[in-house]
Amino acid sequence: MTQQTPLRRVALNLAAAGLPVLPLRPGKAPFGNCHQCANNACGGRPNMKTAGPCRCPRVCHAWAAATTDPAVLTSPAWTAAWRRAVCVGYHPGAAGLTVVDLDDAAAVDWAHETLPATRSVQTTRGEHWIYRGTMASHNAVRPGVDIKSTMAYARYLGPGTGTMTTLPDAVRALAVKEPSQARPAHHAVAVPAGAVGGECRHRTPAYLDRGIAMAEQRITEASSAVHTTVYRTFLAVLSAHGRCGCLTDAHMTRLFNAAQTKGETLRHCTDAWTNARTTLGL
Question: Could you read off the pLDDT of 67-78 as tens digits, one per residue?
Answer without folding.
Answer: 999 999 999 999
